[in-house]
Amino acid sequence: MGKLLYREGCSFSHGKENSCSDNDDHEVCFGAGYNVGESDGWTIGVDYNQWASTKKFQVSDTLGIRRRTCLFFNYITMLHNVLQVTKQDYESCNVKSPVATFASGRDSITLDKAGHSYFACGFPGHCRAGLRVAISAGASSSQSPDVPSPPSTPREIPPPRTPSAPCQPNFQPPPSGFPNVPLPPAFPNFGTPSGPGFPYLPPFGSGASLHSSNLNAAMLGVIMPHLFAVFAH
């Protein structure tokens, strides 16, 4: 059963959940506050165990920071009070030997340990009329520290490719059997019509003209066979 303490420092309001904090033995306490019965308060005619089943009460103590659960009981002091009782007395509605008694009408009770806690009204007949509640506070799991993810393995960078040698033109030498064609004899330099060395051409039809024609025909007879030999290959 959790240790129950009366804390004047815990805030109290008519909201559903409130902030609860105090300073105990130089330790900082953070917690969530719950109004028992919410807007109905602490009175006859409310199913408090059904109300408690919809809540998640948690306490923790991690790195010196204590998270607690604060329960706020709001009631009329002339009609009700709040008793902390054992499980056996809770089940039998025995209110003659309570563990603790609260009667301010605005009680704030702090649960600082995980476990079950039991409360009932000490006025005659009220516990059997349903004015009681069992609270189960669980220990919240402490968050594990953030573990840095391992560095990713760097991807291997392939070595740069060696540039291939530029293409060289493949020149093939001419076949060895290609005939060596002799060049035709050089034409005579006739020079310019007015300059020296230019021979005098006789008029057409003269004997000199006929001799020149025969000379040209003879030269063609020498050149033509060589040209035919070239094209034949």
Automatic annotation (TrEMBL):
Residues 139-175 are annotated as: Disordered. One of its GO terms (cellular component) is plasma membrane. The keyword Glycoprotein applies. SUPFAM superfamilies: Cupredoxins (SSF49503). Signal peptide: none annotated. It comes from the Eukaryota. One of its GO terms (molecular function) is metal ion binding. CDD domains: Phytocyanin. Keywords: Copper, Electron transport, Glycoprotein, Metal-binding, Transport. Residues 32-139 form the Phytocyanin domain. Residues 147-163 have a biased composition (Pro residues). This is Phytocyanin domain-containing protein. It comes from Salix brachista.
